[in-house]
Write a structure and sequence with these properties.
CATH superfamily of chain A: Winged helix-like DNA-binding domain superfamily/Winged helix DNA-binding domain
Number of strands of chain A: 2
Helix content of chain A: 55-70%
CATH architecture of chain A: Orthogonal Bundle
Oligomer: homotetramer
Shape of chain A: elongated
Number of domains of chain A: 1
Chain lengths: 124, 124, 124, 124
DNA sequence: GTGGTCTAGACCACC
DNA sequence: GTGGTCTAGACCACG
């Protein structure tokens, strides 16, 4: 399964599931039209409360990532792959913006910031 | 005053105060040994409950940023300025690391990441 | 239950709770990973305000003795047992040091101090 | 002067004064019948609030360590030296009792406690 | 059910 | 005046 969860993480469990499903959809790990695991199955697998999985799936439906296929379950919605990729890009950009602007406001010089960035990039 | 608070922000009010006091200490807006505004005064100024301010101040004491001067109030602890600056640096580095590694894991090419960074840096 | 509180004691109630939880952890009365009584339950049991219990638990989290398990409660953190035992040892040593050095400074002869100690030890 | 005060100490300032006066009396640093510094003089010397000194002196009068000498000030009361020495002895004994009993209750073996004590005694 | 946060108001010791 | 502690009761997100 492409989802794993860490109850000790500060992010809510249902949110971890949401993100990972979106991530999987963005990467094509699950294709458009494919069924995701049922609420009960995923809950059993992750050893968490089914309500938590249901909540994650509900949010994914509200964001048009998943859609119900009557009698079968939930499937990845048409266009969800593209939307997930876009969202991911925007998210990263927004976070990058926030970090860099905070770094600047906290008094670091541009040169110092560049140094930090290069150090991090070379690590990856 | 060097503290302002946004109750609509997702960060807890007491945490906003904690961060801003640390920020002020790191910048020298309040020097070592100086008194910070009293609990009641800051509460009145921010139009929040004194307990909330007290909680923020309590945490700052636990982190050795403030110390009580009995009967007078709370003062910036010795060495707090240096420690706050260091902490700030580490925090920024950690966040930068997280964002960049997430960017990399989400499939962006190094060249694309650099483009985003340059765009953000030039904005600042 | 392994916690009891004396409101007449000069030590703050929340601090009594903190110490007794640490004591229980050090002794293994509650094992690593086990849940401690919920805030509301302990408050009811001790007939005190839930906020007071919450404050004690907050401090125990800051000292890495407890950690939240979302939706379930607070559990003893990994390694907390060892840390609590160490802390207890250091505390006793520090207090012993203080008493003995005060005794010496107040003019008592070594022989007299030893007499006092033997008297106390035989009592225990 | 035989009194010095640390506002950062956790003990209340007035209590620090009380203890040090008693200590001085017990040692004979100030003899029976001798005058102690006036409230104003001591306050100026220690750079603290005169009310604080007054409170300490008040308590010392209540405990019959000092007595007023009309027109002159406060003097060490007759027999105060003996009483201070006795009190000091009892205090040390009580504290020793507390530390040793806590050490025992926290699970340390008698042999271990003795080791700690010897280590401390040899240091002094 | 759980903890986390916030408000409101009280009493205390200390300076 | 100051901070420290405690009570009472509310609302929230999470599982």
């Amino acid at each position: 399964m492409f989802v794993h969860v860490d109850p000790a993480h500060d992010l809510a469990i249902y949110d971890q599931i949401v993100r990972q499903i979106k991530f999987a959809v963005a990467h094509g790990a699950v294709g458009v039209g494919e069924l995701v695991p049922s609420v009960r199955e995923l809950a059993r697998e992750l050893a968490i409360n089914p309500n938590t999985v249901a909540r994650a799936y509900l949010q994914l439906q509200n964001e048009n990532v998943l859609e119900t296929v009557r009698g079968l379950g939930l499937a990845v919605a048409a266009g969800a792959d593209k939307r997930c990729r876009q969202e991911r890009g925007k998210l990263i950009q927004a976070r990058l913006h926030q970090v860099l602007s905070e770094a600047r406001h906290s008094g670091l010089e541009l040169a110092e910031i560049r140094k930090l960035i290069e150090a991090e990039l070379s690590e990856i």
